[in-house]
Amino acid sequence: MAVNSTSGRRSCLVVLPSCKEGVSAQSFIQCFTLTHSAFTVQLATPGGKTPEFINQDDQSRRWLNDFRTKPFAVPLSLEIIDPNRYTSLVIPHAPGAAVDLANNKDLGHIILQFIRDKKLICAIGLGVAGLLSAQVEENSSWGLKTYSLTGSSVFELARLPDFAGLAVIPEDAVRDRGASFATSEPDCVHVVVDRHLVTGQNEASTLTAVQNLVLLCNQRQEKSSSK
Length: 227
Prior knowledge:
Structural class: alpha/beta
Radius of gyration: 16 Å
Number of helices: 7
Shape: globular
Distance between the termini: 14 Å
Helix content: 25-40%
């Protein structure tokens, strides 16, 4: 198990896009608050660039302003991430994931290593697009093709003003790659757990999805400590 050597805590990698399409401020705040209470959290983005937080209100803006003063707010580059150092990986709801994570080879290598090691993965809403990077080069197949997932539905995305310009529609892309994809009503809490993979349909599903990740991690720790 990957554990932070100085604190003895488990380590979680939170992956964010670095493009202007950004990451949902509310989904990130919920992801970080929950994971930070249970793990040592490391942020990572393509090139180690500062992420763009979108759809901020006054409360989230104050939270993020305070967050940016902390040392853990500085992301590492995905290029230098060693998957062996982390027990879990989280991608919040992020429209930018369809732009600079869906085809990111560095992220793909990290996720494939997580799949091989059966480590916990959680992706929410458009953050699910980041999972598409896990392409197995040897046979051009998707590393999660035998899994069941959820993510932003076509109905939810169709309301976006830039729907026609979206680089990836997760619902179509996941099914095209042979995996099972299920959605509930728009904006409702909907989470799918399949083995070590937790996916949430939308921003509203963030808390429930990450809570499931933490519960699964606690269960694993209890099993390993009882052996």
